[in-house]
Amino acid sequence: MKKKPAYYPPNAARNIGAVWTAQGDSCAIGALLRTQPRTMAEIRKYHITVTARTHFIPEQSDEAAERYVFSYTITISNTGQIAAQLISRHWQIIDAHQKVQEVRGLGVVGEQPLLKPGDSFEYTSGTAVSTPVGAMRGSYQMVAEDGNSFEAEIPEFILSVPRVLH
Question: Is 3 contained in some domain?
Fold first, then answer.
């Protein structure tokens, strides 16, 4: 079996494998940059799955002003083996012209939920972009009950006015 190197550049860390990206967990990319890779058992210990649903809000949008408003509902599930608290968030909101808005802040919708294994937390928020199609992606910064910090990836999802994309 091929041994993984001790250092992953940031882009490579995001593409290590389906366990981390497809399941919505970056497995502490920052920690991977400073330490040896974790074992598969440790990866499953700190595992957060993030899913998103979006909805276009026409009554708050204004095509003439290039303002398209969307709500998104996020479900954060602790699919790992240890309780973890969401401390902060980092979003990248991208329009069709590749203009990126960065959003950072504490918690989500005024809360910093503690998720025990098997628990989920759902919230709804919103954003506006200047094009009928856009995307969002990001990460949640988490702290496990054992004191370890890690990032939970928010996989990219599409914002689209109905009938714009096939």
Answer: no
